Amino acid sequence: MSIGEVIIFSLIKILIIVGLLFLTVAYLVYFERKVSAWAQNRIGPNRVGWKGVLQPFADVFKLLLKEDIVPEKSDRIIHALAPMIALFVAFTTFAVIPFGPDVKIFGYNIPLVVADVNIGVLFILALTSLGVYAITLAGWSSGSKYSLLGGIRSSAQMISYEISMGFSVGGVLLLSESLRPIAIVQSQSGWMWNAIIQPIGFITFVVSAFAETNRLPFDLPEAEPELVGGFHTEYSSMKFAGFFLSEYANMTIASAFIVTLYLGGWQIPYIDLLGLPSGLVIVLQVGAFIFKLVAMLFFFLWIRWSLPRFRYDQLMSLGWKVMFPLSLINIIWVALLIMVFGL
Amino acid sequence: MALKSIKRREKDLTFLEKLYIPEILKGLTLTFKNMIRPKFTFEYPEEKFIPPSSYRGRPVLVEDSNGEERCVACGLCSRVCPALAIEVQAGETEREKERYPEKFEINMLRCIFCGFCEEVCPEEAIIMSKDYELAFSNREDAIYGKDKLLVPISQIQDKIDFLRQYK
User: Fold this and answer.
1) Are residues B151 and B113 in the same domain?
2) Distance from CA of A41 to the nearest CA of B (A)
3) Is A39 within 8 Å of B41 when comparing Cβ atoms?
4) Are residues B19 and B67 in the same domain?
């Protein structure tokens, strides 16, 4: 393919993915409200449109029409910059997540990923770590004690969970022998899903992902009952919506990342034995990826409405004293598997 | 020492409980069960709550089946009303020794729905109905006169039956 064609195909893929991601995030908010309602024996939003399906758009319009309040003692530039960083990080990460195998259209071989980077996993880890700057800067620039406390909590939480997250990924990398997300997915053919081979690593990674995305039970930077709204106490209108959207986008990305690393990505075990036409197989595989993603997202919401928030010190001791050693044990376990069975 | 005053837990967590994961799964099954349970929500304006007979809603005056009001304007309800919401003005009827209310007003902004008027009424003439939709746009509308208070007996029969049984 020539450079021009690469650019055109990339642009098309970027448009599709960003559009889909916005839609996913909008409907994730709606879904979250529905799931919370179900968990509490309520009905949930059902007034705007059929069964309330237009609710997310109503929410966005409402937020757009609100007054944008900036506190007097805030650092105006950083205050405005923080939600942008949050959104940027949230939407950039999706570039390296593969959601299907290579497709052949009009004689072109198109991989179903925006950027097939050979350090994809590292890219995601690096960018998600940048996400903490958004929250810490938001907390610091607001000029409010609650925001500051939220920001501090966020950075402390990130430091303690980033390590166990990195080490859990280490186990996956040992098996796939590559940092390319596509190679990682391909290494999990059949039932060789990493979630089954290395359950400890799976659990530590999922827990760390919850902490990374600030979701309950680890939503200490927000902690409504203690810190009003945590880091976004002083945010209103579309800036608040920026944080809100980025939280849900981060959730989507964490789910996609978990699916890619541990749940076999787009793979359906032994589908090639059925002898289906290749076009159908690809559609089924993209469908499988979306299904796994939605299941993982539901799990995120389900956990939120089941578990109470951790105390600050419990969070720290869990991160350093439990998650960190467990992820180390996982690496040793995977290394032993490779040594003994030569996987 | 400060440390000694810390109370130990009555029962330490067992190993399984310390693992968190089985306990989390227990919690998750509980919330999932709740998700598929029938919902309690009333979608109010479309779907109305029908209160039980013991409900104390807006007080009404009973209009007997022959089209006459039961009230004899004794003034007991006005007397007992703790919020001073009821005002009765008696008038003479053609019948011997019997009166009727010329004016019977309940100020719904004052009414506290205590049901004392219903309890004290010797004629079973004032009844706390099941009507709870009381909204007004100005203070004048909140003073209910006889035109709004009189309700045919057929509409509140179940409430009267309940009172006869339990009062």
Assistant:
1) yes
2) 5
3) no
4) no
